[in-house]
Structure formats: C-alpha cells, structure tokens
Amino acid sequence: MCGIVGLFLKDRSLEKELGCFLSDMLVTMTDRGPDSAGIAIYGQEKAGFTKVTIQSDTPDITFGDFERRLGDLLGKSSALRLKDSHAVADVPSDRVADVRAMIDNLQGAVRVMSVGETMEIYKEVGLPKDVVSRFGIPAMSGTHGIGHTRMATESAVTTLGAHPFSTGADQCLVHNGSLSNHNNLRRELKQLGMRFETQNDSEVAAAYLTARIREGMDLGEALTSALDDLDGFFTFVVGTKTGFGVLRDPIACKPAVMAETDQYVAFGSEFRALVGLPNIDNARVWEPEPSSVYFWDRETNAAQTLAA
Amino acid sequence: MPTFDLATSELRDLNSALHSIPAGANDLEYEILNPRGSHAVAVGCSHPLNISVMGPVGYYCGGMNSEATISVKGSAGPGVAENMMSGMVVIEGDASQYAGATGRGGMLVIRGNAASRCGISMKGIDIVVEGNIGHMSAFMGQSGNLVVLGDAGEALGDSLYEAKIFVRGTVKSLGADCIEKEMRPEHHELLASLLQKAGVTGVETSEFKRYGSARTLYNFDIDNADAY
User: Fold this and answer.
1) Domain of B64: which CATH number?
2) CA distance A272 to chain B (A)
3) One-character DSSP codes across chain A
4) Model-level pTM?
5) What superfamily in CATH does domain A3-44+126-307 come from?
6) Residue A119 — very low, low, confident or very high, per pLDDT cuts 50/70/90?
C-alpha cells in the first residue's frame, strides 16, 4: 500500500500552515502503511547558504561532536538546529561538498537526509503521528511539501529506507508501488555518478529523475522520460525547489486523488487525506490519468499536463 | 428518517444499523452526513432502504448491496458497488477504479467519469456511466451491460465473455477478442430501457455502438497463444 500526500501552495497567506496541513494529511493516511513516515518541506531560503539535514541514531552523542567538526571545517562556529534525531546545518553553498566529504569520513555515524537551499527532510521508523510530533512538523511553514507513510516491500524498514528520497539538491520523491527494473537502472545510474544509500527501488526512481534533470531536462520532461524507462507500478509525487509533480504508471493500480483551488494544489492517496484543506468542498477534485505528467512551478507560474 | 453523522458516530455503528432493519419497519429512508471519504460506507445492505450519502466516499461504498438504493452526492473511491447483487447505486460525481467490479445484479449509475477497470469481471450488473471510462473496462465481463455516454479508454472489453458494451463516444482501443457488433432492434430496446432506468435523457440509442465478444478465446486454442 503506502500513503502519499503533497501540498503546493499558491496563496502565500497559507504558508504558515503548510506543516500543519501536511501533518494532518499524512496522519490520516496512517492505515496505508505503519512502518515509517517522512516529510519534505520547502521553507525559507537564506541567500548564500544551503541546508544540510542530517540524522543520527545517537543524536545526544553525535551532534555535539559534529557541530565542533563543522566549526573547525568552516572556520567559524555554526550551530546546528537540533530536532530530535535530525539536525539542520546552514552551510555556505560553496562549502557543501566539503561538508559531505566530512560526513563520509564519519562512516555512517551521521546520515544525510537532504541537501537544499529550501528543502528539509525529516523521516524515521514509526507512525506518522509520532514522526510529525517528534520533528515538530505542524509548526513548520513553507511553500510546498510532500509526505509518505510506508508499508515496506522492497527493502528494510530503516530510517534511510523511509521516504521521501532525495538524490539531488532540493529534489525529493515519494512513491507508492514497486519497480521491477531497479537493479539494472541502479547500475546504469551509478555509472553516471549517482550515489545510492539503500537497496530501495524508490531511491532509484529519485536518482533517475535527478540524473535526467542534471542532463538539462525540466521536471516535466524528466517525468515523461520515466514512463519509458521505469518498469513497475508507481504513483510518484516529486518536489523541486520551485515545482511539484505527479506521475502514475500506465496500469494505474496505485490510487491517487488531486484537488485544486485558487489557493493550492493537493495530492492524496485517498480523498480522506484532503478533507481538512480549506474550501475543499469547492475544489476541483479529480483522479490523475495514467501515463500523464502533472506539474506545477512557482517561478514560471505554470501548470501543465502532458499526456504521454 | 434516521440520520447518521459520520463526523460524530462510528462507521461500524452505521453499517450495523443498516444491517439490522427490523421486520416490518416502514421508515427506510437513511441520510448519512459528513462521509468525508470514509471507506465501506453502506456496504452489505440487504433491505430495500433508500440511503442518501451527503458527500464523497472512499473505497467500496455500496459493496455487496442487495435491494437498497444508495445515492452518493459526491465522488466515490475505488471499488464502488463491488459485487453488487441487486438494488441501485448512484454516484453524482466521479468514481475511481474498478467501479461495479464482479457485480452480479442491480444497477450502478455514475453521473461523472469512471476511472480504469470499470465493470471488471462483471457478472450481471448493469452499469451506466454518463462521462468517460478508463482503460481495461469490462475486462472478462461475463454478463450484464456497460453503457458509456462518453469515451472509453484502452483495451475495452478485453477477454470478454457475454457482457454487452454500449459506447456513445470514441473507444481508444478494443481489448483481445472484443469487437464491434451490429445494433439490432433488441439492442436498441435494451439500451433504451437501461437509459430510462438510469434517468438519462436527451440521448438516442442510435448514437451508440455496441461491442461484444468475438468468442474466439472461450476455449484454449494454441493458435491464439499470442492473445492470452
């Protein structure tokens, strides 16, 4: 099963409530998967800085040491924003590669959840209600976000196996379904220099999109090419710094409902996830078509549907 | 008229009440408020109730229905009226995938669109969709009628047995062993009665085409191996 949700705000006055809306939407989808849960939120940008969100199973011991090392590396003290097992470091954008190298040297004591100018990802094993409360998601504001509650099929129930998966800066993906050609694709993507943290099929889908975007495609084009190259069942919701996209495979057995008003575009695995949104009774509600790419972009103010 | 507000009462209590109608009861009108996408609303009814659901429902609404008339003033999630035996289910909005699946009798009316696999493995149910239907609809349909006022998606009627399909709009593609067939007078008569029962007006039976089984896949034949 798995439950996925997404919310892309058009009305800036709702931005303060993004975390609250997303949390409620995800908790409603708990029945669809109790193994792990996660949320990606696109929040406020700080010019020249990139947010590196990290996780540790022993935050009390690890984060203090990490903070000291980060200070040494960057030549000035940089406080981590601590949130339970996660922490966010604001790193000068030109030093992100150095920080990642430092994290690699720690050999697994600290895992990178996300890197991005606006995106933060929080995910853990457990129920959505516990995960959103541990990280204080309801209090977070932002422009758009996606969430996932997992019923594991393709790989272990771990923090790194939880969704959303992020394989590129400010990019993330949640997936309901299962891919059957992920091992081959993973090999091909590794040859292109993509990095993988798990044996999970959904991470391959995320990396696939990142690789295509790196080659110059926009989100809509990357999703369209996924229809040719990914084999299996999928409903994806993906986020980029300014965009939000949805794609269902040609079989379309994984459920999906969307709603749009002047204020937002919302996605849910079921309509139940959407009932708490403002003015939902007057929203345009529809089931996204199979093999059709839907995406919205804040910068170009574009909403597009591409029938493949 | 008993009213159940699902914002304040449990779904299980609602369905229990609908299942335990005392013999001789004459108040058979039920109203269900705030369904808010709940699953399994009014499943397994077996009395001639008249149930109005005032909003969108989730999975399996009206499943296994016999005798009851269920009207949903909103959209329905997957599997609406699944395995219906008799009675009538009317969805004022859209229906998600496998609407009316395996239905054995009664009528399902969808005023909006139905998604993929509408009427899959239908076994006697009549389904009338005023909008469009998605791919693989009426797959392995054994008997009953599927009427579509709009367009049909890919692989309509794949591996069809004796269900009859009437489509007013375009068909993206026909599935294996499904062919267009002649509309004979008895088909016009049947279609007119289905449209009338569904409360559809303003369309002529001559606007529809009929599709049915070519009956070449009924028994295994090695020459058909490619089609299986």
Assistant:
1) 2.160.20.60
2) 5
3) --EEEEEEES-GGGGGGHHHHHHHHHHHTGGG--SEEEEEEE----TTEEEEEEE-SSHHHHHHHHHHHHHHHHTS----EEETTEEEEEEEGGGHHHHHHHHHHTTTSSEEEEEESSEEEEEEES-HHHHHHHTTGGG---SEEEEEEE---SS--SSTTSSPEEEETTEEEEEEEEESSHHHHHHHHHHTT---SSS-HHHHHHHHHHHHHHTT--HHHHHHHHHHH--EEEEEEEE-SSEEEEEE-SS--S--EEEE-SSEEEEESSGGGGTTSTTGGGSEEEPPPTTEEEEEETTTTEEEEEE-
4) 0.94
5) Aminohydrolase, N-terminal nucleophile (Ntn) domain (3.60.20.10)
6) very high
